[in-house]
Amino acid sequence: MALKILINGGKGRMGQAVADAAGQAGLAVGASVDVGDDIKAALATCDAIVDFSAAGATRTLLELALAQHKPVVLGTTGHSAEEKKKLLQLAAGIPCVWAGNFSIGVNLLFALTRRATAILGPDYDTEVIEMHHRFKKDAPSGTAARLLEIILEERKLGAEALRHGREGMTGARQPTEVGVHALRGGDVVGDHTVMFAALGERIELTHRASDRAIFARGALRAVEWVVNQPPGVYDMQDVLGLQ
Questions:
Q1: Residue 221: predicted pLDDT
Q2: CATH assignment of 104-209, given 3.40.1550.10, 3.30.70.60, 2.40.30.170, 3.30.360.10?
């Protein structure tokens, strides 16, 4: 029997993409809900949750999942660092895959960025550039935020090293800076570039998405994986065996 998923944020772009891809992946959409719908009743009929909704809805969703012991695949972004810290404690009580990006290619980008940062070291100035469609509400994107986390971890830097754009007489670039730039326009699904620039050479790792179906397929792959895991918070690196 096919796994039945509940899609939270079903009317959004990603929710619709997940619904479209579910049948091809051999999964069934048991329910599709949005803000204001009775999620509790719908969840009782499903095996797992796929969430692409709004940051403000995450706590309620996780509380319901905990109460009904349902695994969650969480793709919603836009949480503050403090808010996410508290939500992670809740999510740890159930099997939960929480990722800013479910693309298999992007998750390979994460792994390559970690490796490149470790090898190249502080002699290479590092900048992250992302672009999304004009309707995206949060910046930087969840994917860019994860790339920045990886770079800071490898270079043993804190959040104070981040430079969100530059304006005016900021002085020469410092070796400990990690730049981040968010571009918005048109219908761009998602472009991400990590640039490593040294004197005499530059290395760029780039992923460009042209179809939201790649994220939906990755999220559904995460569902099939997480239903067989013990409680804990995982990411797509775990799902794909890239850890």
A1: 96
A2: 3.30.360.10
